[in-house]
Amino acid sequence: MLVKRIPFAALLTMTGYATYKMPPDQYPYAFIACSVALVSASLGVLRGPQHSRGLVNQVLTSLMDFAPLPLMNIQIYLEAKPLYALAHSFSLIPLGIDILVKLFGDECDDKAAASLKLVNNVINMASLTAISIIDDNYMYFFVMLSYLMAQASLLYGHCENCVWTERIHLLFFTLFFFVGILLGTAGHALVSVSPLQHPYAFCACAVGFCHALASLAETIACEDRCTLCFKRLTCSCIEIMTLPMLNIEFYLKSEQSSPLALGHGLFVVPLAFDLLTKVSPSAEGEDDSTRTLKDLTILGNIVSLLFLAANENNAVYGMMVVAAFIAKYGAMFMDSLIAGTGECTGLLGYSLLFGLVPMALKTGYHILIS
């Protein structure tokens, strides 16, 4: 029983620190948000996990689900865009409805309240993401991501088809963390790269961002067929398409090697074969010829970028070679050592790759060998 109170103790510690750092006279809405979490954590430490149908537990769950993020949004928008701040106070309406449903509602009302909660959370997370882009503040984005992780873990934990074990718990949160990193780096690259000046790099970043969204949806949805199919398609695209598109962009930028740029466009052949094997209903899986063609394309583009890095004496290109190597072969190596870690390693490699794209496209060179 004591072990089950550890998460509440961690929440109590963090919210206590946050409440201390949020004076009510300066940050009233953030202080209220932290206070709500503090009350919930305190009760959890004192009483331990309660039955899901307990009245006090249900009310506190509603408050934790609906109150903190809108209150934080109000506080953030008051400092950045005061005009839109109080629009987030409309979250009080679904909060009141949810509490009434928990007190007096039936099963149909529960489903309606759950849908309302989903809409409310999505709107507030989108709002926080928007202000993080407008203010160029990545910390807001990670606040949104942590809230999304909390909601996703609740959804995953209540999924009837999922067996919640310690290993699944660890892999789920690890995967979610690395997906978040990829989403952040690809999103930052997407915002930083101009589609008019660097169309190929922008397309590569868009593929990475879509794959991150697909992976995020797949971790949230419990074995949903649609999300799994979409993730398989984006996985093919990010594996085969990303590095050749970046190579085209970098070779076009090069004064010495620009004639070789469009030769990397041959990636469309293995990409087409790979996508056909994954969308065809009669295909049983990836055959050896398609896999070999895909591996040769990836390896060839890694070698091509390594050649360009040496030819241009550019350290950023060299780091991107390492990132691409980790994403492909490092993932295979880690998965052979510890099953289930390959995808996380691949996501980390792609995150590093996309994080280096804006730096690689900037004017000037980072010397590889002096």
TrEMBL record:
<feature type="transmembrane region" description="Helical">
    <location>
        <begin position="28"/>
        <end position="46"/>
    </location>
</feature>
<protein>
    <submittedName>
        <fullName>Uncharacterized protein</fullName>
    </submittedName>
</protein>
<dbReference type="Pfam" id="PF16039">
    <property type="entry name" value="DUF4791"/>
</dbReference>
<dbReference type="InterPro" id="IPR032007">
    <property type="entry name" value="DUF4791"/>
</dbReference>
<feature type="transmembrane region" description="Helical">
    <location>
        <begin position="116"/>
        <end position="134"/>
    </location>
</feature>
<feature type="transmembrane region" description="Helical">
    <location>
        <begin position="298"/>
        <end position="327"/>
    </location>
</feature>
<feature type="transmembrane region" description="Helical">
    <location>
        <begin position="58"/>
        <end position="78"/>
    </location>
</feature>
<feature type="transmembrane region" description="Helical">
    <location>
        <begin position="140"/>
        <end position="158"/>
    </location>
</feature>
<feature type="transmembrane region" description="Helical">
    <location>
        <begin position="84"/>
        <end position="104"/>
    </location>
</feature>
<keyword id="KW-0812">Transmembrane</keyword>
<feature type="transmembrane region" description="Helical">
    <location>
        <begin position="347"/>
        <end position="368"/>
    </location>
</feature>
<keyword id="KW-1133">Transmembrane helix</keyword>
<feature type="transmembrane region" description="Helical">
    <location>
        <begin position="199"/>
        <end position="221"/>
    </location>
</feature>
<keyword id="KW-0472">Membrane</keyword>
<feature type="transmembrane region" description="Helical">
    <location>
        <begin position="170"/>
        <end position="193"/>
    </location>
</feature>
